[in-house]
Amino acid sequence: MLGVKNLHKSFGSNQVLKGIDFEINKGEVIAIIGSSGSGKTTLLRCMAFLEQANDGIFIFDDLSKDIRSISKKEIKEIRMKMGFVFQNFNLFRNMTALQNVMEGLTVARKMPAEKARQKSLEMLKKVGMLDRANYYPDQLSGGQQQRVAIARALATDPEVILFDEPTSALDPELTGEVLEVMVKLAREGTTMVVVTHEMEFARNVADKVIFMENGVVVEEGSAEEVLSDPKQEATRRFLKRILRKEEEE
Ligand SMILES: Nc1ncnc2c1ncn2[C@@H]1O[C@H](COP(=O)(O)OP(=O)(O)OP(=O)(O)O)[C@@H](O)[C@H]1O
Ligand SMILES: [Mg+2]
Predict the structure, then answer these.
(1) pTM for this one?
(2) Which of 33, 42, 213 is the best mutation target for the ligand 1 pocket, counting ligand atoms within 8 Å of the beta carbon and taking the most?
(3) Is residue 63's pLDDT more than 80?
(4) Which residues surround the ion ligand 2 when the cut-off is CB under 5 Å?
């Protein structure tokens, strides 16, 4: 459904992605884990064309070609079929929750306002935010803002949603409400790529876990394989460090 082969990305002389192979199928949830600076965000950004990769094959449904040869028009079409949820919510401050969710429908997709409104309210309901539809982002908690951002991503019926550490900017007591929504989506069969440090979530929800280090995929497999019985020393080291951090909290 969505994938890359031998993806390379450098910033100047800094080689950040060194030949990544990645593939997600319809209905799957894939968790990407790895230390800070390993290239997780860059991978997501390259797959979303927010960053121009240097080399590699890009795959989306029937399309499979050199990532550098994909036209602006193709990029636009592909991006219309993707949803994004970032660390810092990225809601428009001057718009209500409802307006934020409607925006992607009325502007990019030219959906009539009333239809967009109904669809948006439905999505806000899904993430438990219907009663806050007319609130502005500043009047919402971080967890609530992130749930609005998820509703916004869902509203366009994307084929896949890319999440980049959706809970890492949240106070610990607010991560639960966001993860709960994500677990629900996963159970409903939503195709999701999730960069996360939430090992519990990865273990319970991910069909596959990918561990990245220094711009390469070091290990991948089922959540059970990677998180409970890692083969690589680097994976073991990373998990030990994360576990220690969780205990400290
Ligand atoms: N726009 C940019 N310009 C220059 N270098 C960048 C840019 N974005 C990322 N990098 C570099 O790429 C490397 C990987 O960064 P990236 O954000 O992909 O890591 P990450 O795995 O998402 O880390 P974290 O867990 O901290 O979010 C880092 O060395 C970073 O400095
Ligand atoms: Mg990142």
Answers:
(1) 0.95
(2) 42
(3) yes
(4) 41
